[in-house]
TrEMBL record:
Pfam families: PLATZ. Residues 150-198 are annotated as: Disordered. Residues 150-159 have a biased composition (Basic and acidic residues). This is PLATZ transcription factor family protein. InterPro entries: PLATZ (IPR006734). It comes from the Eukaryota. It comes from Hibiscus sabdariffa (roselle).
Amino acid sequence: MPVPPWLESLLSTAFFTVCRTHGDAARGECNMYCLDCKGDAFCFYCRSFKHKDHQIIQIRRSSYHDVVRVTEIQKVLDISGVQTYVINSARVLFLNERPQPKSGKGVAHICEICGRSLLDPFRFCSLGCKLVGVRRNGNASFSIEAKNEELTRREGMSKEEEELREGSQQGIYPPTPPPPPSNARRRKGIPHRAPFGS
């Protein structure tokens, strides 16, 4: 099963609408999704009544785009190859492609599907782009079992094979620069207030 049956529904669901039942409640916005029911988004209060023992993920917002915490989604989905970001001290990833003007020259990493510039050497900018990549190329997967099989296969390799494999991939990614010296961000001198104008 390369694509879970609930993934397409999750990616096409409209979140952050007002709940029809609990619209006037404090937490009445629909930002939850049930992986078992594969239905519409629902609010915090609907979760308590209709989805008590189900697998639920909470969708969050970042710059008007839907994101999900990595800690929640990686329990049910292999997210390898998708760019993650730290937002409000939580590691998240975007659900769907985000429009971006064509990337300029000098961009080292781009999404294989939409061409969005990426910060790190990932293949996709979002779960939606990974879904397109899985369908188009078949050389990626959402299955956690497939990921575990790959890890087991690697563990079974001899030390020599692993060194050869790592050596062949060394030229793919540029070496990471050393961290800046610890005093690089220290202020020089004493800060002074600007003189009061008259």
